[in-house]
Write a structure and sequence with these properties.
There is one protein chain. The protein is an alpha/beta fold and 293 residues long. Helices cover 39% and strands 19% of the residues. The strands form two sheets. A six-stranded mixed β-sheet has the order 2-1-3-5-6-4. A six-stranded parallel β-sheet has the order 9-8-7-10-11-12, with helices on both faces. It is globular. The structure holds 2'-monophosphoadenosine-5'-diphosphate. 2'-monophosphoadenosine-5'-diphosphate binds next to α5.
Length: 293
């Protein structure tokens, strides 16, 4: 394999706008080099109105697949030939594999989250009560995967309560009647936390540069809880630090990013990437970005 791309190089294209802050190119290109694979991961910023023309052009090129991010995760659906059931249930695609001229859409966010939980010691969420903070796109994927995986109860708490209501109703109708909402203010939240085994922050609260913010009062955290954060910058958020101080088990946000990426990598190459060098590449890319920003 040459040290530079050739006409034989397989491409993986990241479609979104803007893409300046994505860690995925650094992670995947490091893994292609690590494994000696003649692949190139290329971020391509595409405006909404150009998505169809660009995507249909990719079909004629040596492209193994794509990642899709904001704002195209939903718009891409109508351009695909086939959808994996989890992507169909979610109505959003973050990973595409081209096979025999067909474009197949997947969503690896939820499965990536479940794998990061497994790595953090929760091999199964079956029968568990779970509190989810937030109701955006990331929480939707996580909530649906938790419902598919047999969670006993999923409590959704969001600043905008109507979004939480809509998400709970959708899960109950599409998957299983296991979701309910809980108000962000008032005593009910404390009672729910006491019953849950797992608490997940799926909001952007605590993300750099607002690293001092907490998505839930630290006094609610107790040792019976595992606390997972989807925020990965900073690596240990204030929430995770407070959880550790209070004796909780914690699951870092970088794990979800890593595992959803590993799932995509396997779809494009047929190879399960080793996680240790992939994690090192992610941490290095994050550190470089923090240095810049
Ligand atoms: P993503 O697709 O990455 O999940 P998103 O759809 O913008 O991003 O969702 C961000 C989540 O963080 C939402 O649940 C948002 O709450 P709202 O639905 O009320 O907007 C939540 N969030 C963002 N900033 C917040 C803040 N300061 N306090 C509480 N929740 C916040």
């Amino acid at each position: 394999m040459p040290g530079y791309p050739s006409s034989l190089t397989k491409l993986v294209i990241l479609l979104g706008e803007p893409l300046g802050h994505s860690l995925s190119p650094a992670i995947h290109n490091a893994m292609f080099a690590h494994l000696g694979l003649d692949y190139l991961y290329l971020p391509v910023e595409v405006a909404r109105e150009d998505l169809a023309v660009v995507f249909n052009g990719l079909r004629r090129m040596n492209v193994a697949g794509c990642n899709v991010t904001i704002p195209h995760k939903v718009a891409i659906l109508e351009l695909l030939d086939e959808l994996h059931p989890q992507a169909a249930a979610l109505g959003a695609v973050n990973t595409i594999r081209f096979a025999d001229g067909r474009a197949i859409g997947y969503n690896t966010d939820g499965e990536g989250f479940l794998r990061s939980l497994a790595e953090g010691g929760i091999a199964s969420v079956a029968g568990q009560e779970i509190l989810l903070l937030g109701a955006g796109g990331a929480v939707r994927a996580i909530a649906m995967s938790l419902a598919f995986a047999g969670a006993a109860a999923i409590h959704i708490c969001n600043r905008s309560g109507d979004k939480a209501e809509r998400l709970a109703a959708e899960i109950n109708a599409k998957i299983r009647p296991c979701a309910a909402t809980v108000a962000a203010e008032g005593g009910a939240l404390r009672q729910v936390v006491a019953r849950c085994q797992l608490l997940v922050n799926g909001t952007s609260v605590g993300m750099h540069p607002h690293g001092q913010a907490l998505p839930i009062a630290a006094e609610f955290l107790a040792p019976h809880l595992t606390v997972a954060d989807i925020v990965y910058n900073p690596h240990t958020t204030r929430l995770l630090a407070a959880a550790m101080e209070r004796g909780c088990r914690v699951v870092h946000g970088l794990g979800m990013l890593l595992h959803q990426g590993a799932l995509g990598f396997a779809l494009w190459t047929g190879i399960e990437p080793p996680l240790a060098p992939m994690r090192a590449a992610a941490e290095e890319a994050l550190a470089a970005r923090e240095g810049r920003g």
